[in-house]
Write a structure and sequence with these properties.
There is one protein chain. It is built from three helices and twelve strands. It is mainly beta and about 200 residues long. It has two domains: about 5-120 and about 170-205, Beta Barrel (Elongation Factor Tu (Ef-tu), domain 3); about 120-165, no CATH class. The strands form three sheets. Strands 1-2-11-10-7-12 form a six-stranded antiparallel β-barrel. A four-stranded antiparallel sheet has the order 5-4-3-6. It has a two-stranded antiparallel sheet with strand order 8-9. The protein is extended and about 70 Å long. It starts with a strand and ends with a strand.
Length: about 200
């Protein structure tokens, strides 16, 4: 099982390595996450940990959510997600911090990409468009979307205008550059999906 943690994307910066090179990194606030439930194959059919992140007032959660925390004598948490059971010693009430990650660990980050609204085929799919010369009536249009008589339908998967972004995206093969344990901050090389303060899941490869 591979270790994982829930957190927030806080922004990007440059990190100066020991050899003087500037490395683009994403600042990620990971944990602390409290274990809310430990799922087992006997009871649930699979092994997993349900963890909570970000303390919140009771009034901000629904009654079923609050009941889940009260049942286990835990403080209410805003975000709850499942991660793999990477350590059998973890149980309900255990706290997982960013210390589970080490420098140079290779990780994959899952988040919801920025929503860009309804876009045309040039921005959404990278179409080239037509000529910009005078007399041309074809500039940024998608063009033909299918034949006429046969098959007389638009095939599934046809690239067309539509809502762009706002999807769950996983970026793989990123490297942990630095772990600042006292601030729950992990610097990860490259860019990760999402806006500032959006929820992300970091999983070791």
């Amino acid at each position: 099982m591979k270790k994982a943690l829930i957190g927030r994307k806080k922004g990007m910066m440059q990190y100066l390595a020991e050899d003087g090179t500037a490395v683009p990194v994403t600042i990620c606030e990971l944990g602390p996450c409290a274990v809310i439930q430990k799922k087992t194959p006997d009871r649930d059919g699979y092994s997993a940990l349900k963890v909570g992140f970000l303390a919140v007032k009771e009034s901000r959660l629904s009654k079923p959510k609050n009941g889940e925390f009260k049942k286990r004598n835990l403080a209410p948490m805003k975000v709850t997600k499942e991660i793999e059971l990477f350590d059998d010693s973890l149980d309900v009430g255990s706290v997982i911090t960013c210390e589970i990650f080490q420098e140079n660990d290779v990780v994959e980050v899952t988040g919801i990409s920025k929503g860009r609204g309804f876009q045309g085929v040039i921005k959404r799919h990278g179409f080239g468009g037509g000529r910009e010369t005078h007399g041309s009536t074809f500039h940024r249009a998608p063009g033909s979307i299918g034949a006429c008589a046969y098959p007389s339908e638009v095939w599934k998967g046809q690239r067309m205008p539509g809502r762009h972004g706002n999807k769950t995206v996983t970026v793989k093969n990123l490297k942990v550059v630095k772990v600042i344990k006292e601030k729950n901050i992990v610097l990860i090389s490259g860019a990760v999906p999402g806006t500032v303060d959006s929820i992300i899941k970091v999983r070791a490869k």
